[in-house]
Design a protein that fits this description.
The complex is a heterodimer of chains A (about 260) and B (about 525). Helices cover about 35% and strands about 25% of the residues of chain A. In chain A, helix 4 crosses helix 5 and helix 4 packs parallel to helix 6. A six-stranded mixed sheet of chain A has the order 6-7-8-3-9-10, with helices on both faces. Chain A is α/β, with parallel strands linked by helices and about 260 residues long. Chain A contains ten helices and ten strands. Chain B folds into two domains: about 260 residues, no CATH class; about 240 residues, no CATH class. In chain B, about 75% of the residues lie in helices and about 0% in strands. In chain B, helix 20 runs antiparallel to helix 21. The chains are: A alpha/beta (about 260), B mainly alpha (about 525).
Chain lengths: ~260, ~525
């Protein structure tokens, strides 16, 4: 193993974030090895988005740090962010631009040379099946199309680390399968991906590593096989997180 | 059902005030202000009732009432913004008929602070008719009609300006047109009043008489007719008033039907692929990208365009009030510059949470500042130069051009510098992209409102040297001072802009994530 492969693609140490008196993330440590496809799973409100925001320099942690390929995100954000392709959840895009303009704009922000921008944008639009909508402004896109154009923006500068928060939410199955192929080929060529998802099937199918996070803490982390310990990831997740009900639901909701 | 919606509205108000102490302060000031106005209105009405006759009572109530209706129509659009805490779109998912929704919205309008203040003021007019019991009884009916007219008219304007229920482009287009018309209405009315002001006192009864036959004034004129024993006229005016309210109600029902059944329709306009606009022309890199994005927003986003509307507004206003050969008309570029230099003082707010995508690219603060400045300047500077040339040429004062250019460029360039720093420190809640630019935004606090004056003060200090030289030129008549003002304006303003980009850039490098966190914490509607 060479030296660069020893340095993790993403390392989080002791990340803490409080909002008022509520602790959203209470000390998260995570090591994402270079070249891995890392899944981050957890129930609603577990702190996944908060953790990823702190890892990508969007949200200042109250304590702890994040390193991307050894670059401290909070000490040298300019250099660290140039390595990251970020698909953030729950934020707007500049949705008054057309899809094509938005991807071009993002490429310009990352200083992609002018002569490479047009071919990259064309490739991404074909990849995301956005050809017909390339000239439509993003505000008029459906939820799935918006997700796809945001994903294209995250890819356009060929980052070494992709941080994808709920990338497949509302994306149609055909596009999702196409995107999966591209992401697999990206990791096999040495790129690193960390994705957060609610879909255990997807994580079990695509990822080689997984971390289960709940109430702002990591409950289990490692390779998928280590974490699921012989069970299906779904069952292992439920037993780790708890909170499963077995009721049929309230009587008044039943139709007969 | 109406009671449920009312409870909901007060629950929302209570929750948002409890969470934001500074908003509570602003709210209390609003109530004090309303109380102050009410006290003086009631005192004035009592004075008229005691000391004046029927004719004065009629003129007071008709002119005051008409102004009230106009205020309800224009006020929310021009000053206060629409109250969208509870609106038709949010009530649409519930199994309510259109009539129920309208009843609920009317009730929330009447029971809001402006509604309560209006009702009290209108009820106080009964004092005018104590000497004519029959008129007092008629007044009660008319007050109910009048207050309802105010509320329904205001709701109709709000439904129209937030779109005819059609697609996004249509909504933005209608919104902008309504805004232009309303802004133009101001100067035209002022000008007309100024032209006729010579003997305006003699004309008051006549104005009241004419207004009394219009939809906005008829309802207020009925009690005076009853008091004077003019039965036919009273019935005719009552019919006009009732027809007005009915027409407003029907138009509103129609606008709502559109809004509720076709919410946020997708627009079909598509640019041909490869149409990159400015993004194809600007150099790659953070500055070029931000410049292209910012200039595109200045050219297309109604929230930015709204700020450019003041460019024609000032010269028109001065042309009407003091004529095109007046000093104010040919100096209007300076005032436009003073307002434009404030336009970007919380520029990051307009990005909304899309600022996350700026932050994620790791762009250096100074590149972001420079890009935004170039975007604003690409449209602001040409407009100001054009305005200065046109107004001085039309006003026949071309000899003042260098001084006026110097003062306005000094102000606007300095303002860009100040904005580069202030927008790295401040964010305020603004209408989201695509929302009506007139929408009132929750979370705007008393404190951030005051900061505008700090920013404006800083712009004035930077613009002061050039303004001083320009004024010296106007007083002494020596052309050389005008040219000195031009050089000083460009050098001092330009210096401030460069300094602002550097200082604002360093600030943004530090504060970027905090700005994003504050934007995300704004209440969304």
């Amino acid at each position: 193993m060479t030296d660069t492969q020893m340095v993790p693609a993403l390392q989080l140490a002791g990340l803490v974030k409080r909002f008022g008196d509520k602790t959203a993330v209470g000390g998260v440590d995570l090591v994402v090895p270079a070249g891995s496809f890392y899944g981050l799973v957890g129930p609603n409100g577990a702190g996944k988005t908060t953790t990823l925001s702190m890892a990508t320099g969007l949200l200042r942690p109250d304590a702890g740090g994040a390193w991307v390929h050894g670059v401290d995100v909070w000490a040298d954000p300019v250099r660290a962010k140039a390595l990251i392709g970020n698909l953030a959840d729950g934020v707007r895009l500049f949705d008054r631009l057309t899809g094509e303009q938005l991807i071009t704009y993002t490429a310009m922000m990352f200083s992609v040379p002018r002569d490479q921008i047009a071919p990259r944008v064309a490739d991404l639009i074909a990849l995301m099946d956005l050809g017909e909508a390339a000239g439509t402004i993003v505000a008029d896109y459906s939820a799935g199309m918006t997700k796809k154009v945001a994903l294209a923006c995250a890819l356009v500068h060929a980052p070494r680390l992709l941080v994808l928060d709920e990338p497949f939410e509302s994306v149609d199955p055909v596009s999702a399968a196409n995107i999966e192929d591209v992401l697999r080929s990206y990791t096999s060529s040495g790129g690193t991906i960390i994705i957060s998802s609610h879909s255990m099937d997807l994580v079990q199918r695509m990822c080689d590593h997984v971390a289960v996070i709940a109430a702002g803490r990591v409950l289990a982390a490692g390779t998928v096989d280590e974490v699921r310990a012989g069970e299906s990831l779904q069952d292992r997740f439920l037993s780790l997180v708890g909170g499963r009900h077995t009721s049929e639901g309230p009587q008044w909701l039943r139709q007969s | 059902m109406v009671a449920t919606v009312l409870r909901l509205r007060y629950r929302i108000l209570g929750n948002s005030l409890a969470r934001r102490p500074w908003q509570l302060v602003g709210f209390c000031f609003g109530i004090l202000w309303a109380l102050g106005i009410l006290t003086s209105v009631v005192a004035g009405l009592v004075a008229v009732a005691v000391f004046q006759g029927l004719e004065a009572a009629r003129a007071t109530v008709v002119i005051g009432g008409s102004a009230l209706v106009l205020g309800w129509v224009l006020g929310p659009v021009l000053i206060a913004g629409m109250d969208t805490t509870v609106d038709a779109e949010k009530l649409a998912p519930f199994p309510l008929s259109a009539t129920q929704i309208m009843a609920a919205l009317t009730a929330t309008g009447v029971t809001g602070i402006p509604g309560i203040a209006t009702s009290i003021a209108a009820l106080a007019t009964i004092a005018l008719w104590v000497r004519w019991p029959l008129a007092a009884i008629a007044a009660v009916v008319c007050i109910v009609l009048g207050v309802l007219t105010c509320v329904v008219a205001s709701r109709l304007v709000s439904a129209l300006s937030s779109g005819l229920g059609g697609n996004r482009r249509g909504r933005e287009f209608v919104g902008t047109i309504v805004l232009i018309l309303l802004i133009m209405a101001g100067p035209i009315v002022t000008g007309t009043l100024a032209l006729t002001s010579a003997d305006v006192r003699d004309r008051i009864p006549r104005i009241a008489d004419v207004l009394g036959w219009t939809p906005i004034g008829a309802v207020w004129a009925v009690p005076a007719d009853v008091a004077a024993g003019q039965g036919v006229s009273a019935v005719a005016r009552l019919l006009i008033a009732a027809a007005t309210l009915a027409a407003l109600w029907l138009l509103w029902a129609r606008a709502l039907r559109g809004a509720v059944t076709t919410p946020r329709q997708r627009a079909a306009k598509v640019a041909r692929s490869g149409a990159l606009g400015l993004f194809g022309r600007m150099p790659t890199g953070g500055v070029g990208a931000t410049w292209a994005r910012s200039l595109t927003a200045w050219l297309r986003d109604p929230r930015y365009l709204r700020q450019l509307l003041i460019v024609p507004l000032f010269p028109l206003l001065f042309a009407f009030t003091s004529g095109i050969d007046g000093f104010m008309f040919s100096s209007s570029a300076v005032l436009v510059a003073l307002v434009l230099c404030l336009s970007g003082y919380t520029d990051v707010s307009y990005d909304g949470t899309a600022f996350a995508s700026v932050l994620a690219t790791g762009i250096r603060g100074r590149d972001d500042r420079l890009g935004r400045l170039l975007g604003a300047a690409s449209i602001g500077i040409p407009l100001i130069v054009l305005l200065a040339v046109v107004t001085t040429a039309v006003g026949g004062r071309l000899e003042h051009l260098p001084g006026i250019l110097g003062a306005s460029l000094g102000l606007v360039l300095g303002g860009y510098g100040v904005s580069a720093v202030s927008s790295a420190l401040l964010v305020t809640p603004v209408a989201a992209p695509g929302d009506s630019p007139f929408k009132s935004v929750p979370g705007q606090t008393f404190l951030t409102g005051l900061l505008v004056f700090v920013v404006m003060g800083a712009c004035l200090v930077i613009g002061a040297p050039a303004i001083a030289f320009a004024v010296a030129g106007f007083i002494t008549g020596a052309a050389v001072w005008g040219w000195v003002a031009l050089v000083v304006g460009i050098v001092v303003g330009g210096g401030a802009a460069v300094l602002g980009v550097w200082l604002g850039g360093r600030t943004l490098d530090r504060t970027g994530p905090d700005l994003l966190q504050r934007i995300r914490a704004f209440p969304t509607t």
